[in-house]
Design a protein that fits this description.
The chain is α+β, with helices and mostly antiparallel strands. It is built from 3 helices and 5 strands. The protein is globular, with a radius of gyration of 14 Å. The relative contact order is 0.26.
């Protein structure tokens, strides 16, 4: 069903080494914004949407880990554009949690191709 997020798809990432996320064919194809929370948790937002560059500061936000203020500014800017934000919380080299958040009226979806270990071909 279009516009459906499966809890199973999200939960399948819990405890998975971040190296698996780094090799996933979908997450390799979308821009990622990274920041570090005050407790040391890395937060990665893989943004699937249009007009992402409008909020990127000329692409600077995608080049390295940004401070929380820059991350928040990017997130606020993206509220006016349709996108699905695929947000991963990472600690000690492992995914702790994966959530999705639609902006600008966008509805996120997941399926088995969004799970760890997927290496097939698919039009995302």
């Amino acid at each position: 069903m279009a516009g459906c997020v499966s809890k199973q798809d999200l939960d399948s990432w819990q405890g998975i080494p971040v190296a698996e996320l780094d090799k996933h064919p979908f997450f390799l194809t979308v821009p990622v914004v990274r920041t570090i929370a005050s407790d040391g948790t890395e937060i990665r937002n893989y943004v699937n949407g249009q007009n992402v560059a409008s909020c990127s500061g000329g692409g600077q936000i995608f080049k390295s880990t940004v401070d929380m203020a820059s991350y928040s500014g990017f997130s606020s800017c993206m509220q006016k554009f349709q996108a699905c934000n695929n947000i991963f919380y990472i600690k000690d080299g492992r995914v702790q949690q994966y959530i999705t958040s639609g902006t600008g009226g966008s509805i996120c979806m997941t399926d088995e191709s969004m799970r760890p270990g997927f290496r097939g071909s698919k039009n995302f």
